[in-house]
Specification:
422 residues, mainly alpha, 18 helices, globular
Length: 422
């Protein structure tokens, strides 16, 4: 029998009602999961599983390029002796080379063991990103704005960082564990700083000194640590007040003292030192402090493009060197950076969406040692954006949440008006 139009409408409404109940039940279950007392442990497990899946086909990737002199041809890492350990400690990036010595002792030249180490550190870093954002979203200065979304947002950011294709070079290229280890101890210092600043316990300050030493002993760009900590302190802990920041002078001192490790390893105390980071470059292509800075403005937008659209990635780019500011695309790059910087500063002045100016500051400060005025022969490498990308993902997740929150508020009056007309 053919049902009337009225009957069919009743059936559709009834089925829709069942669907709504089912959907609401699903939402309630998800919310209860986020509120579970052991959710942080579950989140760490999800992060680890996703990273392992993403890099499951890389465990047998062979040694490449600088892996050969650093690992295969490096006799110092092959035997754990007091003499060899002493030589590594006094050399460049001692923490990294000590890890190579340990890795060689465990797995020899079997690449599986080397990749397991790199991927393991990357998982730890991703979990640290989760806690960094989770603790920040719960700061009193944010007024509980993200209280019901903090775990979801933190997990989203950590997963983006963990499985994003731009991290491939840092994770799979074995000697790029310099980025992994420096970031690991960098983030550990941050987490200790947050705990120490809020609790006032001196033990956290000691821990900060140790992790800062290990970070700067892994890669030179870790000297940015005091600056990024200062920005974080002003925005989220001191809430714009100077006195609380000055009261934590010892915490800043202990993360600045390890600069000596970097200065010594680069031989900045001796004439002609630091050629490795570009001070002594004489490039026939016209690469100097000015052209490197101009080129870096373009390179940074390439990094941003890769973060949004990770296609055409490359381990060894042939990137054009910018000659003057007033050429394309350099002038557009400059204006773009200017807009981003001014926008972030305006958000800070209005004390709204503080995570966005913080993420922008993290991104730019993190890139400053390698993409500023100190010329390096290779103007672009994807592994350089490994640690700075954390700032990008913070901005992305906050902007994403705010956009959908705005959209829901906009839809609410429309839906209410629709119900009133029924």
């Amino acid at each position: 029998m053919v049902k009337s139009v009225t009957e069919r409408k009743k059936i559709i409404r009834r089925e829709a009602g069942r669907g709504n109940v089912s959907m609401q039940s699903l939402i309630d279950r998800v919310n209860s999961l986020f509120n579970h007392k052991r959710f942080n442990l579950l989140a760490a497990g999800v992060i680890a599983a996703m990273v392992l899946i993403a890099y499951s086909n890389t465990f047998t990737a062979s040694f490449h390029f600088d892996d050969n002199p650093a690992i295969i041809e490096n006799a110092t890492i092959r035997h754990i002796t007091v003499e060899n350990i002493g030589e590594l400690i006094q050399g460049l990036r001692p923490v990294v080379y000590l890890s190579l010595m340990l890795n060689y002792a465990v797995s020899g030249l079997n690449v599986v063991g080397w990749h397991m180490f790199n991927i393991g550190i990357h998982i730890v870093n991703s979990v640290f990103v989760y806690f960094l954002l989770l603790w920040t979203l719960s700061m009193p200065v944010l007024g509980g704005k993200y209280e019901d979304r903090a775990k979801r947002m933190a997990l989203f950011a950590a997963l983006l960082f963990g499985v994003h294709p731009i991290q491939t070079e840092s994770v799979t290229y074995i000697i790029s564990r310099t980025e992994l280890l420096a970031t690991c101890f960098y983030l550990a210092t941050f987490l200790l700083f947050i705990k120490g600043a809020r609790s006032g316990k001196f033990g956290y300050t000691i821990g900060m000194f140790i992790t800062a030493v290990l970070s700067m002993g892994s890669k030179e760009w870790a000297v940015t640590l005091p600056a990024v900590l200062l920005v974080y302190d002003i925005l989220f802990i001191a809430e714009g007040k100077v006195r609380p920041v000055l009261g934590r002078w010892l915490m800043y001192a202990v993360v600045t003292v390890p600069w000596y490790i970097v200065l010594k390893s680069l031989n900045l105390f001796t004439p002609g030192g630091s050629a490795g980071i570009g001070f002594s470059i004489q490039s026939p292509g016209g690469l100097n402090a000015q052209t490197y800075f101009l080129t870096s403005m373009n390179v940074i937008w390439t990094y941003v493009r890769l973060l949004f659209l990770p296609i055409n990635q490359n381990l060894d780019y042939e990137y054009p060197v910018a000659k003057t500011l007033f050429e394309l695309p350099t002038i557009i790059s400059f204006l773009g950076h200017l807009v981003v910087t001014i926008g972030a500063f305006m958000l800070y002045r209005r004390r709204t969406l503080l995570l966005i100016p913080f993420g922008v500051a993290w991104f730019y400060i993190g890139l400053s040692p390698t993409q500023s005025v100190v010329p390096i022969i290779d103007v672009i490498f994807e592994h350089r954006v490994y640690m700075p990308s954390i700032g990008f993902f913070i901005v992305f997740v906050v902007a994403y949440e705010e956009l959908f929150a705005w959209w829901e508020k906009r839809k609410a009056p429309v839906a209410l008006a629709g119900q009133e007309t029924r």
